[in-house]
Write a structure and sequence with these properties.
single chain; alpha+beta; Gyrase A, domain 2; three-stranded antiparallel beta sheet; two-stranded antiparallel sheet; 5 strands; elongated
Amino acid sequence: MFIVSAKHGQSPINPAKVNKPGHFADLVAALPDANTNPAAIANRERCCLWRRLLAGSFRTTTIALIWLQDQSQTAAVASYLNANAGALFIDEVLAEAEINLKFNSPLADNATPDILVQPQYGTIYTGSSKKNAEHGGFSFGDTNVGLIVSSSALHHRVVKTPVATSQVAASILKALGIDPSELQAVRREGTTVLPFLFTNEDGDGQ
């Protein structure tokens, strides 16, 4: 059995939709009230601090990740970013409860950003002339990849059932005669094997 996929997609798929307005922190700093609004100052100080600590290597490309020095400002900063979504090319701002739905709480895990910014499709927060696409966001182009399974036991077919790349590991174990539930992640997330691989018609993969 051969399983071919990719770890991420790229966006924008259409090069005509590329928008490179510059670094996210610089866009925030250019807003009219950037030097007076407390939320703008809280956002800018953290971004600038990271840029100093990492000698300019801090980057926001497909998405912007923001860690605040004062986490009590999270709601205010998120509201400020939403209010300036047009000027900042923002599609969605995730903070507080929305962050907790996808990641560990930033109050308990320093690796989780306090705020995550998903830009409008095609926007890459960079001024680089070399970057024509990027990955890491939640757009269709970022999160959808090809998945091909080949085996002498399978007949040719196109499967339109939604699947996830996390199902690949479980399927490999099943093909090797190993119980997929031996994987801790499979048990915790209830991951199933890829459909139609181990049954003829029912597609439940059991």
